[in-house]
Request: fold
Amino acid sequence: MSYQALKEECLTANLDLPKTGLVDLTFGNVSVADPERRVFAIKPSGVSYGELRSSHIVVLDYDGNILEGDLRPSSDTPTHRHLYLNFPGIRAVVHTHSRCAVAFAQAGRDLPCLGTTHCDYFNGPVPVTRTMTPAEVAGAYEWETGTVIVERFAGLNPLEVPAVLVRNHGPFTWGPTGAKAVETALALEIVADMALKTLALDPSAPPAPDHLLAKHFFRKHGPGAYYGQPA
Reply:
């Protein structure tokens, strides 16, 4: 059974990540899944982007068993696996420490939906998780990071809000392809930067009204979408 196409998509998405300006040093990783085969490919831990090759990419199954690869997978692998198990419909996950999104995560504050740029990508605020407990951090930390993300999405649609801010840590985004998940990570950082500047000018700036949010989100997403060209 060949995983080469999956590894190549994962490699391309990981190499695209530093081009966005979202990555410092080796911070950040991308995984890409094949839900039908219940496997996913992910960047190896600590390997610089300049050295990364498809042969370095690690493939695991949804139970966490390594199927292909000689290197240790990203330390965030259990978080990615948790999301694939709990968010049906996603095929790729991105984690960064992008600075503006991290600012909201460190403040423990949801990223508010203040304007149409945000509305185009996220159907509402991007939520922040609760603080993890000492037991969660001391135990299976990366798996429990996934636990608090899934917990925070109770009542939310992860396909309509494809991002989260992990308290004191940083953002995770996801999507139907590696390329789209990376694009969403970049969009998240852009709207976080806009929100920081807006709130600096007016700390009481109100959110975008619901009717404007719905218009902008659903003109790009769902069966009634009309933005762009037909597939």
Summary: Residues 102 and 170 are 5 Å apart (CA to CA). The helical segments are 4-19, 77-86, 99-107, 116-121, 134-138, 141-152, 178-201, 210-218.
